[in-house]
């Protein structure tokens, strides 16, 4: 019997294309002959953080050989910018309208674009554009809002004040997280081409349908007049979930010069041309009884957003449901500043909230003298405390116990600053991770060809988790074909619609649509065979026919059957085709569905230098069914490494005088490298969650970064006895 593809560690089906350079990323489609004759656009960005443009001198730039145009608000056409519905929920407010007025809203805002025959000519021209400003001092910090405070988001249950008065133990602390940028390997890029009134863009995007809708809105054309192509994405972490200004600039420039135009953001421009994880200040008060059971929690949160859009993260969910807490009050204020708009970054909201909650739980454990794992077990809920709904599955206890056993938690000396290795102080910490299981409608198209191969399409994306591969596995199982005979295609808005490639929803949503579509296609082939007098299966019951390795046969009589090729050849059909999809049902309301994890970190801190070295990180996860263990391990390693960066290294620094990002490069914005990454590993509990969807998956791309930073911070406290509440943890904080 043919072994199912799902559940096996299949190597990436697109791996060879990537390692041989044949995979075409956004900026490479002109080199791969998808579009010919592209010219280059280089963006000129503002050098003040707020104000107005009083003059733009482009004479020296336009006089250069090969320069086709310099476009700014002074000569750009007025664009419709019609309202539109994004696939992802947009921030409230008005997104930046490119070259439509003289206002400067943040440092690094696009103010012009130079278009030339060569990249070098465009770069030179951009450097010669002289912009004069009437500058104002921008508001760039949480304590200096740019305008009226945004309406707060509130939640409350129970009588919090009374519970805090009666609490045996009370913890009240403020935790701060600095801005983080995604810094994917592939910079954001767009190639745009007009064919009459029809627009095609090759773009780095996690949602081709978002980019299509955005461009249709900007230019006032029908969505079906826009095609977005994005077959490969070189990392994004959420930064490509919306169409940023450079996408519009490429399309606008292409229409103005009547040539295809390529715009690639520089590494420096990525820091203001796309979003980021926002600066957040999280004040948390916990009250507990004599046994360490939580009786009350007050969450008072402030986070930055732009003055023109109100971006908010899902910061409140964890505080409502992760632990049994009868009395909860939450206030979340987004603070408008003169900055560009933040956006989703891996584990959005959850990673931030987990840092505050899990560090506070560690402080409570230390204050009460209760083991940190035991404290969490005492506060495990039976139902979702926020909604009252039952959990679809919640195996957090098993995650905690499995992780503790693996790392030897019970052997650690519980007293801080009690374990040494020469000059190094050793510590072990842990934290809980949760991330909601998101699902959304998705569709797919499948074709079975006369040669016995199949192609399956959906307009999803693959920024690194291995969508090409995992979808191929799901399709192969549903069709009864080996993986080698199935080809999955994605990244084209002309394909059946799919939700955003983010929020850990792709497998639960698109995977379910692929399974449904391929099931329909297989059943279609079975019906064709049993209805055909020339088939060995003629007259059989459809329920008795199975497909293994591309051959249809009777379950109880395997010798009686035929292959897909034989069936299609005899019936004279070049192919069979089916469409299918997935729409979440009432289970999304009836159950509380989340992925869970327990993260353990071991650190060494140099007593004299304050240097922190992470020696080990382990994550144990309840993520439902694992379609591909090899890909899951890759995701986990990436998430754990990202958490190390969040805890110890990553920090975007802005100059408060003008809002300039002073470390907008990979030399000064530190990300973990091989020397920073220790023994990192992940374990996934066996099982599935059928309430989460047809495939039993719960999503794992986001949860693997949640909880890592607080586990490291808690380990640093255990090593040194010093509690650091601001991320990243720097040398200065420990000296």
Question: Could you walk me through the main structural features you see in this protein, from its secondary elements to its overall organization?
Answer:
The radius of gyration is 27 Å and the shape is globular. With 735 residues, it is α+β, with helices and mostly antiparallel strands. 25% of the residues lie in helices and 26% in strands. The protein is built from 18 helices and 30 strands. The protein folds into 3 domains: 25-136 and 185-235 and 240-273, 2-Layer Sandwich (Aldehyde Oxidoreductase, domain 4); 280-438 and 589-734, Aldehyde Oxidoreductase, domain 4 (2-Layer Sandwich), CATH 3.30.365.10; 440-583, Aldehyde Oxidoreductase, domain 4 (2-Layer Sandwich). The strands form 7 sheets. Strands 3-6-1-13-10-11-12 form a 7-stranded mixed β-sheet, sandwiched between helices. A 6-stranded mixed β-sheet has the order 8-17-15-14-9-30, with helices on both faces. The termini are far apart. Helix 9 packs parallel to helix 17.
């Amino acid at each position: 019997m043919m072994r199912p593809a799902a559940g096996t560690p299949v190597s990436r089906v697109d791996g060879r294309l990537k390692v041989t350079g044949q995979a075409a990323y956004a900026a490479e489609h002109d080199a791969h002959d998808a579009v010919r004759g592209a010219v280059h656009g280089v963006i000129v960005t503002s050098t003040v953080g707020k104000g107005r443009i009083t003059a733009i001198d482009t004479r020296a730039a336009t006089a250069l050989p090969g320069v086709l145009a310099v476009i700014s608000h002074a000569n750009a056409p007025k664009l419709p910018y019609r309202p539109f519905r994004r696939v992802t929920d947009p921030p409230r407010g008005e997104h930046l309208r490119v070259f439509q007025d003289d206002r400067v809203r943040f440092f690094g805002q696009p103010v012009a674009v130079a278009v030339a025959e060569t990249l070098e000519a465009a770069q030179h021209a951009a450097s010669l554009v002289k912009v004069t400003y009437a500058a104002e001092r921008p508001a760039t910090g949480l304590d200096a809002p740019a305008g009226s405070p945004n309406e707060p988001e509130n939640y409350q249950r129970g009588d919090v004040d009374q519970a805090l008065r009666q609490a045996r133990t009370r913890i009240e602390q403020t935790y701060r997280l600095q801005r983080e940028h995604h810094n994917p390997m592939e910079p954001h890029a767009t190639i745009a081409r007009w064919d009459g009134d029809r627009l095609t863009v090759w773009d780095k995007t996690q949602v081709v349908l978002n980019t299509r809708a955005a461009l249709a809105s900007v230019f006032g054309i029908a969505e079906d007049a826009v095609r977005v192509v994005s077959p490969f994405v070189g990392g994004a972490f959420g930064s490509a979930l919306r169409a940023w200004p450079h996408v519009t600039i490429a399309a606008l420039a292409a229409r103005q010069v009547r040539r295809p135009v390529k715009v690639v953001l520089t590494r420096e421009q990525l820091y203001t041309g796309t979003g980021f994880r926002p600066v957040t200040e999280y004040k948390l008060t916990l009250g507990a009884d004599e046994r360490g059971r939580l009786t009350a929690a007050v969450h008072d949160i402030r986070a930055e957003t732009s003055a023109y859009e109100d971006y908010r993260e899902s910061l409140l969910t964890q505080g409502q449901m992760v632990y049994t807490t009868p009395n909860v009050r939450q206030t979340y204020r987004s603070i408008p500043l003169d900055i560009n708009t933040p956006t989703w970054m891996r584990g959005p909201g959850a990673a931030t909230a987990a840092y505050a909650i899990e560090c506070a739980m560690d402080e409570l454990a230390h204050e009460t003298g209760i083991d940190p794992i035991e404290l969490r077990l005492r506060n495990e809920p039976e139902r979702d405390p926020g909604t009252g709904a039952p959990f679809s599955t919640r195996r957090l206890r098993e995650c905690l116990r499995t992780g503790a056993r693996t790392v030897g938690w019970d052997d650690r000396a519980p007293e801080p600053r009690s374990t040494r290795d020469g000059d190094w102080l050793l510590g072990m910490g842990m934290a809980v991770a949760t991330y909601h299981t998101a699902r959304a409608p998705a569709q797919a198209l499948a074709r079975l060809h006369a040669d016995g191969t199949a192609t399956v399409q959906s307009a999803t994306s693959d920024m690194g988790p291995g969508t090409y591969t995992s979808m191929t596995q799901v399709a192969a199982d549903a069709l009864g074909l080996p993986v080698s005979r199935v080809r999955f295609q994605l990244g084209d808005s002309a394909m059946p619609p799919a939700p955003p490639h983010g929020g850990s929803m792709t497998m639960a949503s698109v995977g379910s649509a692929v399974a449904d579509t391929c099931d329909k296609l297989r059943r279609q082939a079975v019906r064709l065979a049993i209805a055909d007098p020339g088939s060995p299966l003629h007259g059989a019951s459809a329920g008795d026919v199975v497909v293994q390795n591309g051959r249809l046969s009777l379950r109880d009589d395997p010798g009686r059957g035929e292959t897909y090729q034989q069936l299609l050849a005899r019936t004279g059909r070049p192919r069979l085709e089916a469409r299918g999809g997935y729409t979440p049902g009432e289970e999304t309301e009836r159950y509380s569905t989340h992925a869970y994890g327990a993260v353990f970190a071991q650190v060494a801190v140099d007593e004299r230098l304050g240097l922190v070295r992470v020696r080990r990180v382990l994550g144990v996860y309840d993520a439902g069914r694992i379609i591909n263990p090899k890909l899951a391990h890759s995701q986990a390693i990436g998430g754990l490494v990202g958490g190390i960066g969040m805890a110890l290294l990553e920090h975007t620094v802005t100059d408060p005088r003008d809002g300039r990002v002073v470390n907008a490069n990979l030399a000064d914005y530190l990300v973990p490298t091989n020397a920073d990454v220790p023994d990192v590993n992940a374990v996934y509990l066996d099982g599935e969650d059928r309430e989460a969807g047809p495939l039993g998956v719960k999503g794992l791309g986001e949860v693997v970064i949640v909880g890592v930073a607080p586990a490291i911070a808690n380990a640093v406290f255990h090593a040194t006895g010093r509690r650091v509440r601001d991320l990243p943890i720097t040398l200065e904080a420990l000296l």
